[in-house]
Specification:
about 20% strand, paralog of FGE (formylglycine-generating enzyme), 4-stranded mixed β-sheet, 11 strands, alpha+beta
C-alpha cells in the first residue's frame, strides 16, 4: 500500500464507519480533541539492513553501544496485520487537552496550551485515556496505541525510513528534532503531516505506547494485531523528539524505559475505538 492508496483506504473506511476522516471529540470546557480514522491493513514492521540511515548514529562518539543494541531491537522485520480500524490523535496530546481531564500540568514548558504535554509518566498517560473513555461514554475504548498500531499509523503506507522518504534533508519539514539541550518543544501540528493526517510522528516529543518492551520481541511477535510481551520491567515509547538525534526519529526506531520516567521530551498520543461493527467495507 502506497501513501496515495493509504489515503484512499482511509477515506473508504471512514465512509463505511459513518465518520469523517477527522473526528473531533469534545472534552470538558469544550476543548476539541481531533482524531484521524486509521484503516486496517498490513505492513512491514521494523527495519532491515537496507535502511542505511539507521547506522548513522553508530558513528557518533556518545552512546555507541546503546545505539547498536537499540537498532538490533528493530529486527528482524515482520509482516504484521492490523485487522480493525481505530482512531488516533491528529496531534500529540496538548496541555489544554490534558488539563481538561487531569488536575495538574506536569510539563516543563508551559507557555502555551497548544504545546504538547510532557513529563508524563506511563501510568498518568493511562489515567488520561481512562478519563477520556469515561467522558465519551459506553461503547468507547480508549488507550495508548500498541507499538504495532503506532508504527503502522506513522508509516501510512510508506516503506521508507520516515513516512516522507529516506532523506534527512526533508526531515525539517515534518519534525522538530536535534535542537539539543538549549531547545524546547513546539506547538503541536505546526509542520507537515503524514498521508493519514497525523502530525509530529517524527519529532517534537516522544510518545508512550501500551506495550511492555522486549528487545527480541520481533523474532517472536504475533503477526496479527500484536500487543507486545505479556510482562516486562519497561514500556515502549516511539517517535522523535526535539532534544535528540534525527536518525532516532525513523518510523522503526524503538525506545524503552521504566514507566515512572518523567522526561521533558516525552508525552502521548491517544488511540480510541468508537462503538462500531468490524465488518469489511
Amino acid at each position: 500500500m502506497t501513501p496515495s492508496e493509504a489515503q484512499q483506504c482511509q477515506q473508504a473506511w471512514a465512509e463505511f464507519m459513518g465518520l469523517p476522516v477527522e473526528v473531533t471529540l469534545r472534552l470538558p470546557g469544550d476543548i476539541p480533541l481531533t482524531m484521524m480514522v486509521i484503516p486496517p491493513g498490513e505492513f512491514t514492521m521494523g527495519s532491515g539492513q537496507s535502511e542505511q540511515e539507521r547506522f548513522i548514529e553508530l558513528a557518533k562518539p556518545f552512546g555507541d553501544r546503546f545505539a547498536e543494541f537499540r537498532i538490533r531491537s528493530e529486527g528482524p522485520t515482520k509482516r504484521v496485520q492490523i485487522t480493525k480500524p481505530f482512531l488516533l490523535g491528529k496531534l500529540e496530546v496538548t496541555q489544554d487537552q490534558w488539563l481538561a481531564l487531569m488536575p495538574k500540568n506536569p510539563s516543563r514548558f508551559q507557555e502555551s496550551g497548544d504545546l504538547p504535554v510532557e513529563r508524563v509518566r506511563w501510568d498518568q498517560a493511562q489515567e488520561f485515556t481512562e478519563k477520556l473513555r469515561n467522558t465519551l461514554g459506553d461503547g468507547w475504548h480508549c488507550g495508548l496505541p500498541t507499538e504495532a498500531q503506532w508504527e503502522y499509523a506513522c508509516r501510512a503506507g510508506s516503506i521508507t525510513a520516515w513516512h516522507f522518504g529516506d532523506s534527512l534533508d526533508d526531515l525539517s519539514r515534518y519534525a522538530w528534532v536535534e535542537q539539543g539541550p538549549q531547545g524546547r518543544s513546539r506547538p503541536s501540528g505546526t509542520l507537515l503531516p503524514n498521508a493519514w493526517g497525523l502530525y509530529d510522528m517524527h519529532g517534537n516529543v516522544k510518545e508512550w505506547c501500551a506495550d511492555h518492551y522486549d528487545h527480541t520481541y520481533y523474532s517472536k511477535t504475533d503477526p496479527i494485531d500484536p500487543t507486545g510481551p505479556e510482562s516486562g520491567d519497561t514500556r515502549v515509547f516511539r517517535g522523535g523528539e526535539w532534544h535528540r538525534d534525527a536518525t532516532g526519529s525513523r518510523s522503526a526506531a524503538r525506545f524503552n524505559h521504566e514507566p515512572d520516567l518523567e522526561w521533558h521530551a516525552l508525552g502521548l498520543r491517544v488511540m480510541a475505538i468508537p462503538p462500531m461493527t468490524s465488518q469489511t467495507p
